[in-house]
Each structure stands twice: as C-alpha cells, then as structure tokens.
Specification:
elongated
Length: about 425
Amino acid sequence: MAAWNILSPCSARGPVAAVAVGLVATGLCCAAARAESTVCRPESFGATHDGMHDDGPAITHALEECAGKGMVQLSTGTYLSGALVVPSHTTLSIEKGATLRSALVPGAGTPPVAFLYGKEAGDITLQGAGTIDGAGEAWWAIARQARSRHEKMPPRPRLIAFSHVDDLHVSNLTLRNAPTFHLLMTDVSNVVVDGITISSPADSPNTDGIDPAGRNITIRNVVIDNGDDNIAIKSGHRDPQHPDAATENVVIENCKFLHGHGLSIGSETTGSVRHVRASHLQFQHTTNGLRIKTDRAHGGEVSDIVYDGVTMEDVREPIILTDYYPKIPREDPANDDRAVGREGASPRIHDVTIQNVTGSGGLMLGYAVGLPDLPIKKVVLRHVLLEAVKPMEVRNAELTFEDTRLHTKKGSPLLQESNVTISGSPE
C-alpha cells in the first residue's frame, strides 16, 4: 500500500452563492437537499473497510461520483486511506461504527497539507457519529526527537484543513490523533462546527484542536482534550477585501476544554481580529484559560472581544493578554522599535470584556502585558472570581474591575509594574 495517495479533486463548481443566515446557522442549506438524493458508498467502488487495505481510490471515486448530487457514506468498519480532497457541493458522512483512518506515514517524501483537504471550494459538509483518526503517533515521535535536539520540526500533515471555503459545516464527528492540528480553517466564511469531539494525548506536540481564520464562524457544543491550543483564532495575513479585520464575527459557545492550552486569539494577528463572542465555557486542567497572544513585530488590532460565563478548574494561568510572544520578557526591551512606524504591524489590543468567570486551583492569575508605546486598553473584568497561588503581572495596560475578586495565597493579587492604569479594585 502506498504511504499516501494525493488524490485529484473533481471539478469544483465554485463557492455557493450567499444563503440565508438561518440556513447557514443550522447547517442545512444545500446539504439537506443532497442528503435526500443520491447516496454513494465506497464499497460500490471496491472499498473493503477492513483497516488493512487502501480504500483511498474507492473513497475518491465515491466523492467524485456524488459531488453535487448527494452524500458519500462510510457506514461501518475502518477505511484506511491516503490523503483525500473534498470537492465542492459534497457531503461526507461517517456513520457510527465507522472510522476513516489515515495511512500517511513519515519518511515517504514530503507529506501533503492534510489528510482531508479542501481549497477554493464551497458547500462542504462533514458529518456523522463516526471517527476520523490521524494515526499521529509516528509523527509525534519524530517531532519530539527534533525538539529534544533543538532542531526545527519536520513537516507534518494536518488532520483536516480547509482554505478559501465558503459554507462549511462540520458536525458530531470525533477527530483524534492528528499528526498536528486537528481542524485548520483558513480564509473561510459561513462556517458552523457543532457537536464534535477532539482527542489526542496531553503531551502530543502541536495538536491544536480547532484553528479558525475567516468570517462568520460558529463553534459550539465541542469537547476538546489535546496537546496544544484547544481553539486558536488566527488572522495570519491582511485581507485587502476586509482591511479592518481578516477574521471577525466568531461565536464560540457551550464548549468544554480538558487538557490543552486553552482558548487563544493569536499568535498570528497581522490581519486583525474583531467581534468575538465566547460564552458558556468550561476549562479543566488546561495550562491556560482565556489568552490573547501576539508577537510585537507581527501583530494587528484585536478588539471587541467578549468572554462571558466561564468556569475554570485547575487552570494554571486563567487570563493572559500579552503583546510579547512566545516569551514575556522581565522588562520591556530598551530601544526596541521593530514595530514602531510600521502600519498594521504593531499589536493593538483593546476593548476586551471578561465577565461572569469563576476559577480555582491556578498557579498564577495571569498576565496583562502590553507594549510601552501601545499599551493594552479598555479591558474590563466584571463579576470575576479567581483564585491562584501567584498574582497577575500587569504592565503597559489599562484594567477596570467591576464586582471582581482576585485572590492569591498572600499579598496583593496584582503585581503592578510600569505604565499601569487601574479602575476599581480586585480585592
């Protein structure tokens, strides 16, 4: 069996025209009509679904046959495959009892972008109560080895990656053991991710859960237990069509995060991020909770961010807002003007609301560390009750506390350094 089989997409029909908001939100639109018509099964094209033979060509044949006409259904057993391209106007349904498992292995040439991939497409649905398994163990081993030698990690495929896709719906599936990111979405629009479970070991390297970048994105009812960011909202480049924000109108609700690095915005924020609402979230045993992280020289505007209704249990650092990534220096670097005067390059974090949050068992309350020339502004903590061993470090930041109590083992809950403006009291 070939290490992987990079399959050609069938003829794309281009992104679908704009659809009613209600249909996008419920994930119905064209997929519902397809579900009532043709059903294509890989078995009809020779799939054995026994977990030993390469079912990739049969699955591809089914995808091509059903594109625009119906649903490709994996019904039972394990379908072993190389890389698959999902074309426009396609529903791929992996039913309960079925597993789509990656046959991609290291050492057989440059790996493809992802196990499942879609680009310049529209109207794609992934659904079902089954599992997509990235078989990431061998990839993690070489990544750990490179890290131990302080070497650059070799490329690894994502589990699922979509780029420039409009009208995307992913629901009810289990995604597990990605070689690296589980669900990467770049320059997407009109997206609903609903009811999925993501699982990989807590020590699996760079196994982000969901990394969205684009517009009009809803992520709800997900459970993520992994080895890196549970969710990382990104905006890695400027979009001339949307100069104010390449990523905006993101809703995250009713989600549970277990091991992992929490809910992040960044570190890629060059294209700016705005209008994010995250509500009714549970964090258990994650390293971070709510985090906005940018690099000083490659940031953008991050604004109108609201977190509401969050519980945290044994989260090491519940709140992190920083313009220094990956490492916060002890002091602001002298004469560091890398970002000064470069329009759109400097991170600008402002108008962030954190409300109705409770948490205990933390090591440190967190950080609010901006830049001397561009401090973090208009951050409001309202109805927040957090406990940790160490205080929150605040530098180059403006914070307002309303009905908020931050507790540490001893001393003040805030370690205030230079250029700090505080309204209200967290004690």
